[in-house]
Amino acid sequence: MNPISRASLLPGLAFANVGHAAEFWSDTTRITSIYPHAGGMTFNVQYSNPLSTCGGTRWVVPIGSPNYAAIVASLMLAHGSDKPIQIHVEDQPAPCEPVVDRSVVF
Predict the structure, then answer these.
(1) What is the CATH number of domain 18-105?
(2) Which residues pair with 34 in a beta bridge?
(3) Is residue 25 within a helix (H) or strand (E), and if so which, with residue range?
(4) Where are the domains of the chain?
C-alpha cells in the first residue's frame, strides 16, 4: 500500500468546507474574569459579541464538552498571563452565554 502524500490531499481539502455556514470567531480579546462552577467554566472578555442576548461579554465552556480540560487550561493560562485570545462558538444565534468549543491563545 502506498503512503498518502500531502500534495495528494490538498485538492480534496480545498473543498472540505464547501456547503458549511461561515464560522463565528470573536475578535482578538482578553479575559477579564473567570468563574469556575459545577456546570463548567464561565468567563468574561473585553470583546462584546453583537449576537448575544445579554451584553455579549460572557462565555461558557460546559463541563463534559469535547476537549474541556484543554480549553479550560488554555483559557486559564491566557488569563493568568494576560495573553490575547480568540474564541469560537457553534450556536447561532448566540444565547446569553455562547458555548465555546474552540479557542486560540496568542
Answers:
(1) 2.40.50
(2) 43
(3) strand 24-25
(4) 18-105
What does the pLDDT look like over 9-22, one tens digit per residue?
444 433 333 334 56
Each residue of 22-78: pLDDT tens digit?
677 889 999 999 999 999 999 999 998 777 777 788 999 999 999 999 999 999 999
What is the spatial distance between Cα 46 and Cα 92, in angstroms, rounded to a whole number?
Answer: 20
Backbone angles phi, psi at 57, to 5 degrees: -105, -5
Cell numbers at residue 41, please?
467554566
How far is C-alpha 79 from the chain's CA centre? 15
63 with 39: CB under 8 angstroms?
yes
Which helix (H) or strand (E) covers residue 45, if one does?
strand 40-45
